[in-house]
Amino acid sequence: MLRLETLAKRYKTGDHALKGVSLEVGRGQIVGLIGPSGAGKSTLIRCINRLVEPTGGKVFLGDLDLTAMGGADLRRARRRIGMIFQEYALVERLTVMENVLSGRLGYVPFWRSFLRRYPQADVDKAFALLERVGLAEHADKRADELSGGQRQRVGIARALEQDPELLLIDEPTASLDPKTSRQIMRLIREICEEQSLPAVINIHDVLLAKMFVDRIIGLTAGEVVFDGPPGELDDAVLTRIYGAEDWTAMQTAAAEDAEDAAVAHGAHGRHAGEGERSEERLAGLA
Amino acid sequence: MPVRQLDGRPVWQRRTTRRQWAIWAGWFAGVVLFVWCWELMTSRTIWAFVWDAPRQAADIGSRMLPPRWSYIDKLLWPLWDTLNIATLGTLLGIIIAVPVAFLAARNTTPSALFLRPVALFIIVASRSINSLIWALLLVSMIGPGLLAGIIAIGLRSIGFVGKLLYEAIEEIDESQVEAVRATGASGAQVLDYGIVPQILPAFAGISVFRWDINIRESTILGLVGAGGIGLQLQASLNTLAWPQVTMILLLVLGTVLVSEWVSAKVRHAVI
After folding, report:
1. Does domain B77-270 sit in CATH 2.102.10.10?
2. Does ipTM come in above 0.95?
3. Interface check A92 vs B, CB under 8 A
């Protein structure tokens, strides 16, 4: 489905962010990309849809060589790749609906997007997606009125509105609290399973990655140093990716965190107010 | 190096000694300049006139009061002209300034090597020439009247609106633009969804602020024949009709107050 061949990126500053990364992601596979800050995770994800221009190697989506494209071809390829961002990257001053519909920008002519006259099918799809992520009643709100978790759901709906064949997800939970992080990851996982969508998720929370992905790729200084199922991610491997650290202690602490979150969640569920309904519904799906 | 060793212990100071001396020298130079300018000013002033100033002011003041209220009949039409000069001039300025701002902003310019300097030059050129001087030039080119005033206000506004707008464009959150681009949007769509919503409040604020300034500027354009209430002001000054001058100044004051109130309301509403 997605194939990278010796993908390389050297920034003008001389920073060698990617040093020939090759990997393949199959249909419906959810890949977690872990590694220390500055390992090139963000660069790797952005080289795939060429928000960052790779300096070497090739990216294939199916049979299409993305690195050889330009102009309109590249835009047509980008619309097949949904992207979800760390700080949500919603257009803050537009409504939730406009943000979701902006997923169709690659499909509709300029006048339609300018006049906000989207084909009814696109609008129907947007409503269905908002329903799916639990934000149906917020369609008319401005994006900056929503909470972090809600914004990320809009981000997910926008990416899915593109009818993507691949999801690129850049630190989806970095700005969220532990409970919301789990809900968002669970939502992403469910959606990928429903549509057998492959996804590449850039994630710095190792435990969250282990919980929700099928395969983990460890990136250090622009090179793949680990590629395997989450079960094989032991202390030795973590040390190889991140350097020496007391991994067992960290994982125990994080497990306790998770329990706390679960307890808090239980208590919360009993006094759920009107506005929390959607969150609860999502949690209930899990 | 603000941290140094003294008796084996680190001592922290805000500035290094050399830097501190440089600052003192700067202050000294400032004082010298002030004294020198004061000398120059006093030696070239005819003090007899200055001492006489309060009496002259009282004299003009007594001639200016009371205002000639009935003169307002002849002022309403020129006032309407003045408002039109300001509003149409602002519109003209905005229409030209918007594309110039997009060419001048580092993150939206299509060519940083050629078009950006051209756009920056347009902005600087427009800003460096006062609207009164634009009006003088235009009156001699296209003759006296409203049109000269409108174009003068418009030309002056390009620089103001263009500069503030391009700074607003450079300050946008790039991640929103990146997200829109990632959907496969075309250049025009990225502009429409990624950039315009972010600069819209700044744009509205800048435009209304400039309109407010232009109302004040257009009241004097008549002095050089570019139409509006300034024509009446000049006629009254020439004939030493001081009560009429007072009436005009009061009317201008009222207009400016109203325009300021309107622009404050509008800015408050959009931000």
Report:
1. no
2. no
3. yes
